[in-house]
């Protein structure tokens, strides 16, 4: 993260094997939902301008208005929704929320866990969205933008957003892991670095601080990872943390190359190193994971 060399991920040829029942299971179990601070920041950016247009006045900075009750039907679309970790968080704020993903297996899992009647799921690609022109108020990408062909996706965003609509993309890096006053970060980073040859090219995107993206709209917001403005903290077991690592594309690539047994051995070796760092602690004790998020948002001009 400290490396400030710009990353340009456009045109990366990435492996996208998210359609495997085992991987979907790991996603459902171990992948986090974004923190509420991100959702409220996105909604504030979206509603701020709508309020100004409707009432000709500035909205209070921390006030987040739903747009559900406003004229017409409000629509939020979550692209690369996976098993719905982010999608449902918008259900209270829009009339309709649609999750879009290429993977049928991920969508099936999202439908099973969905409890909201105004949330639905559709198969589709970010580069060819199954949506009408100028029909969407908010497009979100939660840890998914780096998997898309970004210029093609941005063209689709320009097509489907209503005037004044917003694209909000956010993602997290490998989480920090703490146990009481002990930090496990050095060990985790060392192992992650040793797996560098298995990082998909687009993985650079989420590991670095300075991400270069094509121009979309001039009205935009950037919050870098290094600002540490958005954090999700989770207390979980060491096995949950290992489960999260197990769910990553990096581990999938390691498993493809080395075979399941050897890949599992690497993961268990990491777990064992962390257990020995717990000192007198018990390996069933909770550890604290901190996921820091970056955010990029753009607003389509109103006229
Ligand atoms: C890292 S997961 C993120 C899942 C979820 N949004 C989250 O917050 O954890 C990336 C998702 O993007 C989907 N994906 C990859 N390429 C895609 C594309 N071109 N169009 C739509 N979805 C895509 C994958 O199937 C996967 O479910």
TrEMBL record:
Keyword Transferase recorded: yes
Record-annotated membrane-spanning stretches: none
Pfam families for this protein: Methyltransf_11
Domain Methyltransferase type, first and last residues per copy: 77-169
Alphabetical keyword list: Methyltransferase, Transferase
The keyword tRNA-binding is assigned to this record: no
UniProt GO BP: methylation
GO molecular function: S-adenosylmethionine-dependent methyltransferase activity
Family note: Belongs to the methyltransferase superfamily.
Official protein name in the record: Methyltransferase type 11 domain-containing protein
Species per Swiss-Prot/TrEMBL record: Petrolisthes manimaculis
């Amino acid at each position: 993260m400290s490396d400030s060399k710009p990353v340009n991920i456009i045109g990366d040829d990435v492996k996208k094997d998210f359609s495997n029942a085992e991987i979907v299971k790991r996603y459902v179990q171990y992948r986090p939902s974004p923190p509420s601070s991100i959702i409220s920041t996105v909604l504030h950016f979206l509603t701020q301008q709508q309020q100004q247009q409707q009432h000709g006045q500035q909205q209070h900075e921390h006030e987040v208005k739903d747009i559900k009750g406003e004229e017409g039907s409000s629509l939020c679309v979550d692209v690369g929704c996976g098993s719905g970790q982010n999608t449902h968080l918008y259900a209270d704020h829009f009339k309709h929320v649609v999750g879009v993903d290429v993977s049928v297996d991920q969508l099936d899992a999202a439908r099973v866990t969905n409890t909201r009647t105004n949330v639905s799921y559709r198969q589709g690609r970010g580069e060819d969205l199954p949506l009408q022109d100028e029909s969407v108020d908010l497009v979100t990408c939660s840890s998914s933008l780096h998997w898309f062909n970004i210029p093609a996706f941005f063209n689709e965003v320009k097509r489907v957003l209503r005037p004044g609509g917003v694209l909000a993309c956010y993602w997290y890096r490998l989480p920090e892991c703490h146990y009481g006053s002990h930090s496990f970060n050095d060990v985790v980073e060392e192992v992650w670095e040793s797996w560098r040859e298995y990082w998909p090219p687009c993985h650079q995107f989420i590991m670095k601080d300075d991400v270069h993206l094509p121009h979309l709209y001039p009205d935009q917001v950037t919050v870098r990872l290094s600002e540490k403005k958005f954090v999700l903290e989770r207390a979980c077991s060491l096995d949950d943390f290992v489960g999260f690592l197990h769910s990553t594309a990096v581990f999938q690539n390691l498993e493809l190359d080395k075979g399941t047994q050897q890949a599992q051995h690497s993961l268990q070796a990491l777990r064992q190193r962390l257990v020995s760092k717990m000192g007198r602690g018990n390996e069933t004790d909770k550890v604290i994971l901190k996921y820091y998020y970056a955010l990029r948002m753009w607003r389509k001009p109103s006229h």
